[in-house]
Amino acid sequence: MKAIVYTQYGPPEVLQLREVDKPIPGSTEVLVRIQAANVASEDCTFRKGRPLIARMATGLVMPGTATPGSSLAGEIEAVGKDVSRFKTGDPVFAVSDETFGACAEYICLPEDGVLALRPGNLTCEEAASVCGGGLTALPFLRDAGKIRRGQQVLVNGASGSVGTAAVQLASHFGAQVTGVCSNANVELVRSLGADRVIDYTRMDFTNSGETYDIEFDAVGKSTFSRCKRLLKPGGRYLSTVLTAGILVQMLWTSMVGSKRARILFAGLRPAAEKADDLVLLKELAEAGAFRPVIDRTYTLEQTVEAHRYVDLGHKKGNVVVTTGHVGGH
Q1: What three-state secondary structure class fits 244?
Q2: 35-87: pLDDT as tens digits
Q3: How far apart are CA 79 and CA 85, in angstroms?
Q4: Whose CA is closest to 45, among 226, 267, 248, 245?
Q5: Tens-digit pLDDT profile for residues 105-115
């Protein structure tokens, strides 16, 4: 089978398309014929090996996992002898977690992993993108943010993968949503359910005069110190980007004052929790309350170009690579 492989850290050019052995499912695994895989910002971070803390997930000296990508959608081609939850032909979407391997034609996944039947009203490209932005934004807002109906929520980086998901989910939870993005993406963010959109090229959102119950920095471009005055008493500042600063602020605010800084390691949660969230996102998608935004789609052979584009940092929603496999559903 074809797969993207990299054996050293570096620019997109370290990614190579190779023929590798097709995996064989174990007794409790399913073999998924991949149709689409999401290329997330963190995939590019892992490929670069920068910052160095990212190598804790992939290998200190060289990549320990050869094939990148973790969010995917496809169809089950075969099942192990003890598999009971899925059958051959099931359309699924999934996250491979620490094994990565999504940028390939096939992958084996445990049946009790982060795996669910694909939403019937989404394309494979959209379903693969649910796993990235949706599985991050949901626990941040619900668990770390304790979001409630009627609250004021600001999403910084509202046009990215996590941001577009956060705007839709916060709106679904009944919050009043303010999105922050560039002028080119204002209408997109408004169409996702934002009640107000701030163009950061024209106005500094920290000088807007508004206050919020939750400030969700989906791109790691701000700081708690800068945003603290925008928080209401008891408000929460959420950041998706791990820095020494956010760790110190998280510890300090847990002891002093009512305003909290939080970071959540959404990818490190137990597989069962993420699988439950995947089912919830499936239900929201089928109800029309959540739909991932696709910016660009590339073929598996164009994965280098996909990584180059994501590296620019200007994508709207999600970038996807497709394998050319056609599903039966």
Answers
A1: helix
A2: 999 999 999 999 998 877 677 777 777 787 789 999 999 999 999 999 999 99
A3: 10
A4: 267
A5: 999 999 999 99
